[in-house]
Design goal:
189 residues, mainly alpha, three-stranded mixed beta sheet, 9 helices
């Protein structure tokens, strides 16, 4: 089977080296290990102090899924939309326009917009934004790059535009995402 064309594949632990060296690069669930460690230390402290241990499970939800190539292809029946979406993902780090995507899909802008809305319920430029935010998520979770540098790698001209796009897609600003991913309390930098 071909990954991601026939089968989308996702791992757990988000080990950057392992994920990036896989062919194709492996999407992965990001586990908040710091939070897991803090909960475990708390449990050990409770046990050592003789406190009765609750039998309820302690759930530490994952931070996010870090998308990479192994899950890039969306299940879209429309071949023109699928081709345009692949083209967008491959070039999301560059400046993109509706006209460029339409040319790549061999379709008029209006027809491409209609097909996108029918197939995935989003506009072409909303899909471009989603692909750019996926790049930003990966960079925020795996690097210490500044927001202006991340914006540049996402095909955006400023950190302010990145912040607006990121908040629109995820509901939180990029800095909060980075802190949450790394398990740093929001009172810390």
């Amino acid at each position: 089977m071909r990954v991601p064309e026939d089968l989308a594949l996702i791992g757990v632990d988000n080990d950057t080296v392992d994920c990036e060296l896989a062919s194709p690069p492996l999407s992965s669930v990001a586990v908040p290990w710091r939070t897991v460690g803090e909960k475990a230390a708390w449990l050990v402290g409770q046990a050592l102090s003789g406190v009765s241990m609750a039998r309820e499970p302690i759930v530490v939800p994952p931070v996010d899924v870090i998308p990479r190539r192994s899950t890039d292809v969306a299940a879209v029946d429309d071949p023109i939309v699928a081709r345009a979406m692949s083209w967008i993902v491959e070039r999301a780090g560059r400046p993109l326009s509706l006209e460029a995507v339409a040319r790549a899909a061999s379709c008029s802008r209006q027809r491409l917009e209609q097909r996108f809305r029918a197939a995935i319920g989003r506009t072409v430029m909303q899909e471009v934004r989603r692909a750019r935010v996926d790049i930003a998520k990966r960079l925020l979770s795996t690097t210490n790059l500044s927001l202006p540098l991340i914006a540049e790698q996402c095909g955006l001209s400023s950190a302010a535009l990145l912040s607006v796009a990121f908040r629109t897609e995820t509901g939180i600003p990029p800095g909060a995402y980075r802190r949450r991913f790394r398990g740093v309390p929001s009172s810390e930098g």
